[in-house]
Amino acid sequence: MAQKPSIPKGTRDFSPLEMAKRNYIFNTIKEVYALYGFQPIETPAMENLSTLMGKYGEEGDKLLFKILNSGDFLKGAPLSPADGNPNILAAKICEKGLRYDLTVPFARYVVQHREELTLPFKRYQIQPVWRADRPQKGRYREFYQCDADVVGSDSLLNEVELMQIIDTVFTRFGIRVCIKINNRKILSGIAEIIGQADKIVDITVAIDKLDKIGLDNVNAELAANGIPAEAIETLQPIINLKGTNCEKLATMRRVLANSETGLKGIEECEYIISKLNGLNNEVELDLTLARGLNYYTGAIFEVKALDVEMGSITGGGRYDNLTGIFGMPGLSGVGISFGADRIFDVLNQLDLYPKDAVSTTKILFVNFGEKEMDFCLPIIAKIRAAGISAEIYPDSAKMKKQMAYANTKNIPYVAIVGETEMAAGKVTVKNMETGEQQMMSADEIADIQF
Q1: CA-to-CA separations, 176 to 194, 300, 329, 391, in angstroms, rounded
Q2: How would you write the chain as a 3-class SS string?
Q3: Residue 1: HSE in the Cβ half-sphere, 13 Å Cα cutoff
Q4: 3-state secondary structure string, 243-265?
């Protein structure tokens, strides 16, 4: 018996209904990006491995999907006992890999096309990325990212506008969210004042668990990670940080008084938050927010849905020298990425898709035979010219079968044409929801508020 076809774990097929929902997400995000002057680009699915390796930290390197060289991939790859190391072996038989995100390919694009670009360069990109991750709920091996980045400007106004974009997009979706903001310079300042610069990840991971495990357990975890008692003591006001954004910033200003880097981070946060307050966009300062990627150097953001249990659905931040890795130092950038697949799941769970986003065909013409079909085709052409999606059933099948087709596809109107209609030069239009029927001309059909 033939093996049943399947797809790789962590990937998905999308039905026409699911595609309509996904396109609603992509189109909403594109429209908002365009409102703020961002322009689209695309880059190839595969990049040279030299472009991707070493840009995402050790963990990220492990998650890169590598592509075997075409033809005889072992040719010219002298194999030795050392090649038991997957990284050494991969370097010899793979020159390309699937992109892991859109930011590193974007940095490569900027450097490669720098002569053609006008700075600051504002681009958006909506394309799939691939990660050799362990698939689980809300985590896929192939998923779309919807990125917007500005490079070539140090202005914090870019951060403010990106927060406005996030707010606008989720307002349009009807999803209630919490937008969290932090700054890598504040995190560096914290590590600096307690003399534990290399332990910043351990510190933020532990602090992040405060709500779940309580203060004593957080302190115990810090101690278990080798952080000395006096450093843990210094961290107490940070771990217990509460209050409004202003109160949190005032506390941090005291704690980080001796850290120039930390104070710079606080200033940047104050600027962004004050500008957003003036625009009625709310964000929450969260010092446990660290964002895993290595390249962030300033403001970092993360967005969570308030009404659904789900990981972050948008994230991003400022990176000061991403293009430096490709030989073009000193070009600062800031960007965000909407997680389309998670937003898709959130909108599904909350049933927030507008009806017109998921319905396609508005009217189906029943096919009674050749003569009736010839009468219908010019009318259908006229309706389509008015921008209304219309179909004619391709076969003159039983009426019941054609009506079942309309119901299954959620087509709101059915047009019926028999001898009476042809004699009158009109069409009987049936509203599938109410059952009402009415004789109409092509012009009248085009005026229906579908």
Answers
A1: 37, 20, 39, 38
A2: CCCCCCCCCCCCCCCHHHHHHHHHHHHHHHHHHHHCCCEECCCCCEEEHHHHCCCCHHHHHHCCCEEECCCCCCCCCCCCHHHHCHHHHHHHHEEEEECCCCHHHHHHHHHHCHHHCCCCEEEEEEEEEECCCCCECCECCEEEEEEEEEECCCCCHHHHHHHHHHHHHHHHHCCCEEEEEEEHHHHHHHHHHCCCHHHHHHHHHHHHCHHHHHHHHHHHHHHHCCCCHHHHHHHHHHHCCCCCHHHHHHHHHHHCCCCHHHHHHHHHHHHHHHHHHHCCCCCEECCCCCCCCCCCCCEEEEEEECCCCCCCCEEEEEECCHHHHHCCCCCCEEEEEEEHHHHHHHHHHHCCCCHHHHCCCCEEECCCCHHHHHHHHHHHHHHHHCCCCEEECCCCCCHHHHHHHHHHCCCCEEEECCHHHHHHCCEEEEECCCCCEEEECHHHHHCCCC
A3: 3
A4: CCHHHHHHHHHHHCCCCHHHHHH
For residue 93, what pLDDT is reported?
Answer: 87
* Angle CA 225–227–230, to nearest 5: 155
Is the peptide bond between 128 and the residue preceding it cis, with omega within 30 degrees of 0? no
Residue type (1 letter), 80 = S
- What pLDDT sits at residue 294? 61
Whether 100 and 45 have beta carbons less than 8 Å apart is answered as no
Question: Helix crossing, 245-255 with 229-239: angle to 10°?
Answer: 160
pLDDT range class, residue 81, cuts 50, 70, 90: low
Instruction: Decide: 175 and 163 in contact? Cβ < 8 Å.
Output: no
Amino acid at 390: A
CA distance 364 to 374: 15
Confidence tier at 210 by pLDDT (50, 70, 90) = confident
* Cβ-based burial of 9 (10 A; exposed 0-12, middle 13-18, buried ≥19): exposed
| pTM exceeds 0.70 for this model | yes
